[in-house]
Design brief:
The complex is a heterodimer of chains A (109) and B (116). Chain A has strands spanning 3-5, 9-13, 18-25, 32-37, 44-49, 53-57, 60-65, 70-75, 84-91, 97-99, 103-108. Chain A is mostly beta strands and 109 residues long. The radius of gyration of chain A is 13 Å and the shape is globular. In chain B, 0% of the residues lie in helices and 47% in strands. In chain B, strands 2, 4, 5, 6, 9, 10 and 11 form a 7-stranded mixed sheet that branches. A 4-stranded antiparallel sheet of chain B has the order 1-3-8-7, with no helix packed on it. The radius of gyration of chain B is 13 Å and the shape is globular. The chains are: A mainly beta (109), B mainly beta (116). Chain A binds chain B through residues 4, 8, 30-31, 33, 40-45, 48, 50, 87, 89, 91, 95-102, and chain B through 4, 40-45, 58-59, 90, 97-99, 101-102, 104-110.
């Protein structure tokens, strides 16, 4: 079966750095997406990785290791507005998006 | 640009009732999707469409029907609602589908459905 694992919940302090991990086992791989979803709102796109390595976009970075079936989202200089759920999704060999359950990130002052 | 809009935002149904959820996008996107999101689970694809007049089944299509008569609209129907269909429903659209790599899906605000 296809499976994407993320921690259910994480807590971090304002101004700090947090890393959210995502491991996947899917039938094929055609890319990995990270989305942010604030409570009661729609998911919004953060990043896309298809090759190994780090993609940096402002305070957010996303890393991919295809051989390990592993990705992480790194958030720097955390702000209270970063409190949200972070969804990992993998595009499988049939070009279907398989979604993880999401990681709820709580930011404390 | 309104982006992706969904109607209604919230609805309560009794078991056995029917309803239609409407999704509209003004970005001229070819691809449209219907997902459901349940606590502790990832988004699950119900149905999708790769263009006007086409529809295809996703991961959890049972109990739902869809239609894409116009490019900008994608309708999701529940013929006989069941409590198991209580969920938050998201519509999404994209220009070329996720095959375009950095092409992302744009999501509507969601419809909260409660089936009693």
């Amino acid at each position: 079966g296809q499976n994407i694992d993320q921690p259910t919940e994480m807590t971090a302090t304002e101004g700090a750095i947090v890393q959210i991990n995502c491991t996947y086992q899917t039938s094929g791989f055609n890319g990995l997406f990270w989305y942010q979803q604030h409570a009661g709102e729609a998911p919004t796109f953060l990043s896309y990785n298809v090759l190994d390595g780090l993609e940096e976009k402002g305070r957010f970075s996303s890393f991919l290791s295809r051989s390990k079936g592993y990705s992480y989202l790194l958030l720097k200089e955390l702000q209270m507005k970063d409190s949200a759920s972070y969804l990992c999704a993998v595009l499988d060999s049939n070009y279907q998006l398989i979604w993880g359950a999401g990681t709820k990130l709580i930011i404390k002052p | 640009n309104a982006g992706v809009t969904q109607t209604p935002k919230f609805r309560v149904l009794k078991t056995g009732q029917s309803m239609t959820l409407l999704c509209a996008q003004d970005m001229n996107h070819e691809y449209m999707y219907w997902y459901r999101q349940d606590p502790g689970m990832g988004l699950r694809l119900i149905h999708y469409s790769v263009g006007e007049g086409t529809t295809a089944k996703g991961e959890v299509p049972d109990g739902y029907n869809v239609s894409r008569l116009k490019k900008q609209n994608f309708l999701l129907g529940l013929e006989s609602a069941a409590p198991s269909q209580t969920s938050v429903y998201f519509c999404a659209s994209s220009y070329e589908g996720v095959l375009a790599g950095r092409e992302t899906q744009y999501f509507g605000p969601g419809t909260r459905l409660l089936v009693l």
